[in-house]
Amino acid sequence: MPFSSDFDDVYHIGIKESCEKAGAYCERVDEQIFHERILDRIYNQIAKADMIIADMSGRNANVFYEVGYAHALNKPTILLTKDAADIPFDLKHFPHIVYGEQLTVLRQNLATKIAWFIENPLATNPKQTVEIELYQDGVDVSSGKASCSPKPGYYPWPELTLANRSFRTFEPGELRLAVVTRSGEFPYCELPTGQMQNMDTCRMPDGGYFHMLPVFDTLFPQAFTSCEFGLRYSNDQSKGSTSITLRVFTNFGTRDYDLAIQLS
């Protein structure tokens, strides 16, 4: 909804109290304290939210755009409006709570919908898309055609480019990358000089290794960053080929990429 005093009663009495009645926590961005740009904050909060409630009254262009973004992320979304005439053609096939000037109508219908969403999370919260792409030597890793070969006299050293294809900003710690190996393979993961103290490695129950790479700097929408690491292997793993899993972690989900590794 627009940040306007005209909607204060709708928000505080109609929406927020309905959420509390249903057992959900509700917050609007203008109630928060933050240091980033407000648009970055809005997009990040939409990405992190379990549910979006949007008042479409008045055909506000910003609200329409934010609802479109929530839909692109497959977020469970409840749409409200005072007047059915405000629903544009492209949104008429989505259910709306039309409450007119009666907040009691809004409270009754909204509390019921929120409660149903909470009780049916799997039906209303499909897996989110992690919009981070990985490239090795310019080849999209998700294509299955990317691979890494050892440098002469050395071991494999992937040099990855990460592309943020989303419209959200990832602050340090909100985007992480781990290297997951098969059982007994690549027990050591080496970083460029000066970065090894930022590497976390553990052996997994299946005998594979989990190497968490260092924290990335802030990654803005449609921006790129890079990382590199070496994969050291034992003598009995010095020939043939294998693969590693590159696991991307974000606040709203994970995504795995398989990268082929040539050993000789």
UniProtKB/TrEMBL annotation:
* Domain of life per record: Bacteria
Keywords, sorted A to Z: Transferase
One Pfam family it belongs to:
Nuc_deoxyrib_tr
Q: Which SUPFAM superfamilies match?
A: N-(deoxy)ribosyltransferase-like (SSF52309)
Gene Ontology molecular function, alphabetical: transferase activity
Gene3D superfamilies documented for this protein: 3.40.50.450
Q: What is this protein called?
A: Nucleoside 2-deoxyribosyltransferase
Q: Native species of this protein?
A: Botrimarina mediterranea
Specify the taxonomic lineage.
Answer: Bacteria, Pseudomonadati, Planctomycetota, Planctomycetia, Pirellulales
